[in-house]
């Protein structure tokens, strides 16, 4: 079932496959010192005092730094400045770092770290979000009077009244767990004081500009005094923002204090302990249907755990809000979401960003309602799914792009043979000792940031005198292939072979802040900016050379030539050289600004996103009734990505996302207990291995999107947001048992 | 792309350079080069030795507890997790790391080329370990089916690819190597 793929293009593949790509921990510099973090013993405490005198006296030690040594701001954050880069006064979770030990070698730094003495008054932690929001709960939110970290809502029509008049009300409660990103490369940073007075940072991170803000804040310096240089990153999946930025900031603090390069590399346990997780949600859905299957009303309540700090909880919640009914139109909706501050390790951005939790609920509600109404899962979805030129529950009319939800669902139904297989599901009656089931789920996903942020991005195309091209763009390579996509877009725009193009390493000093590589915005925003820069360059060249090439509007850049069809033309190299002769640089700066969006906080209504990606995934499972073990037999997907720029890599994103979702569905469990993680390395926190995963098939549907300069949308997050409910539906069809909590655990007793 | 240079490798910190007359513990071969091992180096993990002493940073540390396979090297033809191996255990043996797989002229091994062609590389952090596990597999079984490939690679975690194109790559490499 291996998919036929055209050969993949990646600018970094050769270095990576030779073991020569330099990740942050691979960097070695003369005179480089080594830092390690010192963690608190507590989960919640106050009156913190840290005694570093013994540690400072240890062999090889260059410095042991605490919050008292911070020249700038101790606390920082993307939205609220509540994340202490070094613990100060209180302890809010077990991931807090009370000191940073720096020595000539890592071994010496580790030995010194063990000598740091911590005094504090321990307090009982608050770890349940429900209890955190109960009246009289101890306040654990930093600087707050209560533990409410965020809230959001949708008000559309009179949901309570509409619900009361429905033929069927499905009332179900679901929960999802905290999930570790488990990027294979733990956090690492190297900070280098440069002779020009600038502090250079190389590190494993997802967003150089965000990192620069953290570094500058901690050091109390201006943004221009810090240069964050792109570094090969070993995966991010949303997880290398706040914490990874703070790892960079701590290395920067030590380098500043010592005037030497300093490396700070995390081991896996530290990464688990300190880095943020996917938000666990509790979701109650009451959805009313009429007999024919029309969803008429929904009352929805969600509660999520923000953990010790705010991070991007409001933005995550906002996506859950805008997409609270999944890809369905419902006339009357009341939805409320609350986020609680607790003493758990904090939660933040993770691939999917508030959608996987919601879809886990919605896509099971649909199957439950279909069964009760005697409809097929496909019929109920077709009836309620958002349609071309139709409305969403936030009142947005979907008339600017192809709404292809039916098309992607039909594709998966056809590819997987869903209907025939649905008829043979075991429904609790084992055959040959196994239970068989198939399940599917559909989703729509707002592209890019939507109304949660200002959305724009830039790129620079700088053509050299010999016609070779340097490209820079403000979207960072996390390993997903962003740079390669940008190069392919530029090659196509300029009509050049991709070999003529080099993607220069980005640095925060060379290009304006283009926003973070999140929200599946790499291709649509970063690629869009590259296309805009290319078009700007072509306009400049055509206008400059109009006396030779004629009407600039007619000039095309194709097959290495520049000119109007049928008219005079120049080779690309000749055209470039003419530009230099005329003292006009063939250089362009391009910006892509996302089309306008809108949001009314009070009603939860507005044009939430400028376009949407439509997706369907299905899973076939086999359940062993003796053990309750769920085995995946096959996985199917179809995604309307607009246009696939680098199809093998697009498929790779889809497969990777599906397997992360399979892990969330069936395996991944941090086992938190009293604010401490039970599983903090990859031996006990199980993520899928090759043998756990069956063959997968993904069909790329391409309806080029007019809102995107390249027609492309994206795939990163659509891929991860709907397999968990598809698996839950398959498990139900196999066993007759509805799994409302993640990860899915089947009790063999119940299967007897 | 960052390419490690010899200067980079030379800057690796020998952890106990210049210490004592502890003497030599023995020798091993790494990528065809014979290396004398001092007593204090013999106590290091093979992963630390490769990365910190020899500056061979292609072998990665993803967990240090033997769970992820990022540190896989091939010792006497068998895949081995270098984070769970002491240098003293491999004295007298032949170690191949990712840096030793390509030809002396820099030509890629067919497994490496197949990883590129099949789109099996994303962030690349698992790639060296995956390639070395695939190398060990194809040494003992030149025609594995997809199930055998999945089983053989199950000691290597990848969070990016979902394994599909990695299995494709190993299948492709096996076919290419059979000729
Ligand atoms: S680093 Fe050796 S198995 Fe993970
Ligand atoms: S490619 Fe990133 S972990 Fe495998």
Q: What report would you give on this structure?
A:
The complex is a heterodimer of chains A (752) and B (179). Chain A is of the alpha+beta class and 752 residues long. Chain A starts with 12 loop residues before the first helix and ends with a helix. Chain A folds into three domains: 13-123 and 187-265, Alpha-Beta Complex (Aldehyde Oxidoreductase, domain 3), CATH 3.90.1170; 281-450 and 601-751, 2-Layer Sandwich (Aldehyde Oxidoreductase, domain 4), CATH 3.30.365.10; 456-593, Aldehyde oxidase/xanthine dehydrogenase, molybdopterin binding domain (Aldehyde Oxidoreductase, domain 4, 2-Layer Sandwich). A seven-stranded mixed beta sheet of chain A has the order 3-6-1-13-10-11-12. Chain A has a five-stranded mixed beta sheet with strand order 8-16-15-14-9. Chain A has a four-stranded mixed beta sheet with strand order 17-25-26-29, sandwiched between helices. Residues 1-21 of chain B have low confidence and may be disordered. Helices cover 34% and strands 13% of the residues of chain B. In chain B, a hairpin with a 2-residue loop joins strand 1 and strand 2 (33-38). Chain B has two domains: 1-66 and 78-97, Roll (Ubiquitin-like (UB roll)); 102-179, DNA polymerase, domain 1. With 179 residues, chain B is α+β, with helices and mostly antiparallel strands. One FE2/S2 (inorganic) cluster sits between chains B (121-126, 158-161) and A (184, 235, 479).
């Amino acid at each position: 079932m291996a998919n036929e793929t055209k050969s993949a293009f990646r600018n970094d593949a050769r270095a990576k496959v030779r073991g020569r790509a330099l990740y942050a921990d691979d960097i070695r510099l003369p005179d480089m010192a080594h830092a390690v973090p010192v963690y608190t013993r507590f989960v919640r405490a106050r009156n913190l005092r840290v005694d570093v005198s013994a540690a400072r006296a240890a062999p090889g030690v260059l410095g042991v730094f605490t919050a008292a040594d911070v020249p700038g701001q101790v606390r920082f954050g993307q939205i609220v400045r509540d994340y202490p880069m070094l613990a100060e006064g209180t302890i809010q979770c077990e991931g807090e770092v009370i000191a940073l030990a720096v020595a000539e070698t890592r071994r010496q730094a580790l030995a010194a770290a063990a000598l740091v003495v911590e005094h504090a008054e321990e307090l009982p932690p608050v770890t349940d979000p429900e209890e955190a929001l109960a009246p009289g709960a101890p306040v654990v939110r930093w600087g707050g009077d209560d533990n409410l970290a965020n809230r959001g809502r949708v008000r559309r029509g009179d949901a309570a009244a509409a619900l009361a008049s429905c033929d069927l009300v499905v009332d179900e409660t679901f929960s999802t767990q905290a999930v570790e990103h488990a990027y294979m490369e733990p956090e690492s940073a190297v900070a280098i004081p440069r002779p020009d007075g600038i502090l250079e940072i190389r590190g494993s991170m997802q967003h150089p500009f965000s990192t620069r803000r953290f570094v500058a804040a901690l050091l109390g310096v201006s943004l221009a005094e810090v240069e964050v240089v792109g570094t090969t990153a070993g995966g991010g999946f949303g997880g290398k923002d706040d914490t990874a930025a703070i790892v960079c900031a701590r290395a920067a603090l030590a380098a500043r204090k010592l005037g030497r390069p300093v490396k700070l590399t995390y081991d896996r346990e530290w990464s688990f302990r300190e880095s943020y997780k996917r938000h666990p949600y509790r979701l109650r859905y009451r959805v009313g249907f009429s007999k024919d299957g029309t969803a008429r009303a929904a009352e929805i309540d969600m509660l999520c755990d923000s953990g010790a700090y705010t991070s991007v909880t409001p933005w995550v919640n906002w996506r859950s809000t805008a997409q609270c009914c999944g890809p369905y139109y419902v006339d009357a909706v009341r939805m409320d979401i609350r986020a609680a501050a607790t003493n758990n390790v904090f939660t933040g951005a993770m691939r999917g960003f508030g959608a996987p939790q919601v879809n886990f609920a919605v896509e099971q509600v649909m199957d439950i309602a279909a069964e009760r109404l005697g409809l097929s899962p496909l019929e109920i979805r077709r009836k309620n799914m958002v349609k071309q030129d139709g409305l969403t529950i936030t009142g947005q009319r979907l008339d600017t792009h192809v709404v292809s939800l039916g098309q992607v669902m039909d594709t998966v139904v056809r590819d997987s043979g869903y209907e025939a297989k649905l008829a043979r599901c075991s429904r609790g009656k084992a055959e040959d000792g196994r239970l068989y089931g198939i399940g599917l789920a559909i989703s729509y996903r707002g592209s890019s940031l939507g109304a949660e942020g200002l959305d724009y991005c830039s790129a620079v195309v700088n053509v050299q005198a010999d016609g070779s091209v340097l490209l820079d763009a403000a979207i960072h390579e996390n390993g997903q292939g962003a740079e390669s996509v940008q190069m392919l877009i530029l090659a196509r725009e300029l009509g050049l072979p991709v070999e003529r193009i080099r993607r220069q390493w980005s640095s925060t000093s060379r290009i304006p802040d283009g926003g973070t590589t999140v929200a599946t915005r790499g291709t649509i925003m970063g690629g869009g900016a590259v296309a805009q820069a290319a078009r700007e360059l072509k306009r400049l060249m055509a206008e400059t050379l109009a006396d030779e090439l004629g009407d600039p509007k007619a000039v095309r850049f194709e097959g290495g030539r520049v000119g109007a069809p049928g008219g005079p033309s120049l080779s690309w190299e000749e055209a470039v050289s003419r530009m230099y002769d005329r003292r006009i640089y063939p250089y362009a700066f391009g910006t892509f600004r996302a089309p306008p969006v809108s949001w009314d906080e009070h009603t939860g209504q507005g044009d939430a996103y400028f376009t949407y990606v439509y997706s369907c995934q299905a899973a076939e499972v086999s359940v062993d009734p003796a053990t309750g073990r769920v085995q995946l037999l096959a996985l199917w997907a179809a995604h309307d990505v607009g246009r696939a720029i680098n199809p093998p890599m697009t498929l790779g994103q889809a497969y990777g996302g599906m397997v992360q979702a399979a892990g969330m569905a069936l395996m991944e469990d941090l086992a938190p207990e009293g604010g401490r993680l039970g599983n903090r390395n990859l031996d006990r926190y199980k993520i899928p291995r090759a043998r756990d995963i069956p063959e997968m098939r993904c069909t790329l549907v391409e309806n080029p999107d007019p809102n995107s300069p390249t027609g492309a949308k994206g795939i990163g997050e659509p891929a991860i947001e709907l397999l968990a409910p598809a698996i839950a539906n398959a498990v139900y069809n196999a066993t007759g048992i509805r799994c409302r909590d993640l990860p899915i655990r089947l009790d063999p007793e119940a299967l007897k | 792309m960052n390419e490690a240079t010899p200067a980079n490798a030379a800057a690796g910190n020998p952890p106990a350079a210049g210490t004592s007359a502890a003497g030599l513990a023995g020798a091993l071969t790494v990528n065809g080069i014979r290396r004398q091992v001092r007593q204090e180096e013999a106590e290091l993990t093979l992963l630390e030795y490769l990365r910190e002493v020899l500056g061979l940073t292609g072998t990665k540390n993803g967990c240090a507890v033997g769970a992820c396979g990022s540190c896989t090297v091939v010792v006497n033809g068998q895949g081995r997790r270098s984070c769970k191996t002491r240098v003293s255990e491999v004295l007298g043996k032949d170690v191949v790391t990712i840096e030793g797989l390509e030809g002396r002229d820099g030509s890629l091994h067919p497994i490496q080329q197949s990883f590129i062609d099949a789109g099996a590389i994303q962030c690349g952090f698992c790639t060296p370990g995956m390639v070395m596990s695939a190398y060990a597999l194809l040494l003992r079984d030149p025609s594995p089916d997809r199930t055998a490939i999945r089983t053989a690679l199950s000691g290597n975690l990848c969070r990016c690819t979902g394994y599909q194109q990695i299995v494709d790559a190993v299948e492709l490499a096996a076919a290419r190597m059979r000729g």
